[in-house]
Amino acid sequence: MSGLRLSPLDAAHRVLGAKMVEFGGWDMPVAYPSGTIAEHLACRSTAVVFDVSHLGTVRVEGFYAKAALQGALTNDLDKILVGGAQYTHLLNDQGGVLDDIIIWWVDEDRFDVMPNASNTDRVVAAIGGVDITKTRALLAVQGPDARELLGTVSKEFATIPKFKVARTLWNGAECVVAGTGYTGEDGVEIAVPNSHSTRLWDAILATGIKPAGLGARDTLRLEAGLPLHGHELSPSITPLEAGLSWVVAWKKDEFHGRGALVAQRESGEVRRLVGITTDGRRPPRDGCQVYLGEVAIGVTTSGNFSPSLQHGIAMALVLPTTKVGDRVSIDVRGTRLEGQVVKTPFIAKK
Hints:
This protein is an alpha+beta fold. Helix content is 21%, strand content 34%. It has helices at 10-15, 36-45, 65-72, 120-127, 146-150, 155-158, 194-206, 214-223, 258-267, and strands at residues 5-6, 19-23, 26-31, 48-51, 58-61, 85-91, 97-107, 110-114, 130-131, 136-142, 165-170, 173-178, 187-193, 210-212, 272-278, 289-292, 295-306, 311-318, 327-332, 335-342.
């Protein structure tokens, strides 16, 4: 498709027969011939590898790098050390989330900031740094067997602890590896130079780890109750409304949007994010009205069929009076799906 960016692994996906779709300005695999449900279940039972090269990498370096990030983003880097990874938010003046980000603190004065695909430019504008996305591929190896199988490719890759980051060599190429992911399963993410990306992809597949596309990545993160920017988070949704107040370091004197969040915290949130399970296999979708009886109480932000639970699940922004256990319905194109408000995650995160 004209104008779309391509992963360094684009040719490898096409050889495997992947179905490609536009996502965040990139042409990326949504599924392979086995299908999204099989890929999802493989991640829950064994291990899969995702190409997530569409995610950004903004390198922020130098003596003032940490101060720049501390002044712009909600979380507090003093909670972690060099070699750690941290989830954080970039807000607008109204407290809405411009992007949710993972920071890899690689060296004392080097941070690799990982924004969502379509938000890289706005993150660079806010924090500075250099966009190095085009220099590397990013692979996410996830699942209960991920580390054991990946260990046959590189023991160093397999032993990176959860939420830790390290530089290591693979076949002479310097890679950055983090114990992070977006599935609710254990695993790692590997930034590998373009020159070695296809060889590493092939080596991972040779272990028996299956390729998985963005379709399975979405159903996996939904089961794990993880937010997706543009759905559970957006410039019009604050961390407090999304149930992510733990991402906000209130003791920090300054970060973008702090004043608006403080005001919202003092006044009380006007809505909150909840999980909903629905009866039967028909999936709820995003943007659907949620009802308590005949009273509209909110709107779904994400919805799908859960391959693990074998019924529909959704997340929704609803009135703050909504309680776990409430029986609700979701209007999907004129049909009411009956359901119940539940705690998230829908399945236990590993």
